[in-house]
Write a structure and sequence with these properties.
It is a single chain. The chain is globular and about 55 Å long. Helix 8 packs across helix 9. It contains 9 helices and 10 strands. Strand 6 and strand 7 form a beta hairpin. The longest helix is centred in the last third of the chain and has 27 residues. It is α/β, with parallel strands linked by helices and 258 residues long. It is 40% helix and 22% strand. It starts with 6 loop residues before the first strand and ends with a helix. Strands 1, 2, 3, 4, 5, 6, 7, 8, 9 and 10 form a 10-stranded mixed beta sheet that branches.
């Protein structure tokens, strides 16, 4: 297997004791082994840190970092990105999993295409780990398409630091992962997707991503704070462009997974 360089895997952690072991095991099982796993704990009140520490004590590639106060997933990711030493940066949240050949296939695809950012399709599961469907990605995403709707799963994203530099999440509490992809695409202009699902996204009943209606104001805030649009333009774009695209996406997902 070719060695294309170190991959820094970014994982935020908050009260994830029930799932973090499965996440780390899926990283350890990767066929591409030149990686470091940077887990920043966001002041968990369960035994997440103890579990992560046990893994870190057995494998020096796993590093546990801690925030002084609860700050949200974006700040936790940025804390890990700051410490990252890899040429490539990838993301895997503390309740998600990767398939064993995820890194190997994606990094080979990325280097063969010669692009700065790639992503893949992914499977979904419920809290019990039972598969519930698939999210099929598009072959290509641009700054214009990502503004209309975020169809890139953060758990599948990988970008090349040598091509775009280190790019951090905006300092916003919610929707920072979407804003981050907008930032990357603002630099590299185009990202390419692999149709093969290489990761597993866990749908949790109490997760922020499941409360779509509560995120509306944060979606609009991304247009205003990241793209520097006026509030009027932000609201109009959301209502007439983003929302119709999102509805079509949800309908297509239901059709694929029925």
């Amino acid at each position: 297997m070719s060695n294309f360089g170190l991959v820094s895997i970014i994982t935020p952690s908050f009260n994830c004791a029930n799932f973090i072991g499965e996440t780390i095991d899926s990283i350890l099982a990767q066929t591409y082994q030149n990686w470091e796993l940077l887990i920043t704990d966001d002041c968990s009140t369960d035994n997440s840190r103890e579990i992560i520490s046990r893994y870190a004590s057995k494998d020096p590639r796993i590093k546990l970092l801690n925030l002084a106060e609860n700050s949200g997933a974006g700040i936790a990711r940025n804390n890990s990105i700051k410490e990252a030493k890899g040429r490539f940066i990838a993301f895997c949240d503390s309740d998600d999993r990767w398939y064993p050949d995820k890194l190997e296939k994606q990094i080979e695809f990325m280097t063969s295409v010669g692009c700065a950012m790639t992503y893949t399709s992914y499977m979904t599961c419920n809290e019990a780990g039972e598969n519930t469907g698939i999210i099929v990605c598009r072959r290509k995403e641009t700054i214009n398409s990502i503004k209309r709707d975020d169809k890139i799963g953060c758990l599948t994203v990988m970008y090349d630091v040598e091509k775009v530099g280190k790019i951090f999440m905006p300092d916003i509490r919610k929707r920072q992962d979407w804003a981050f992809k907008i930032r990357v695409l603002s630099v590299c202009k185009v990202a390419y997707g692999m149709k093969e699902p290489l990761a597993l996204y866990r749908l949790r009943n109490n997760s922020l991503s499941n409360k779509k209606t509560s995120l509306i104001k944060y979606n609009i805030a991304v247009y205003h704070s990241v793209l520097r649009w006026s509030w009027v333009k932000s609201y109009l774009y959301f209502g007439f462009i983003f929302l119709p695209c999102y509805i079509i996406k949800r309908m297509s997902i239901k059709y694929i997974n029925r």
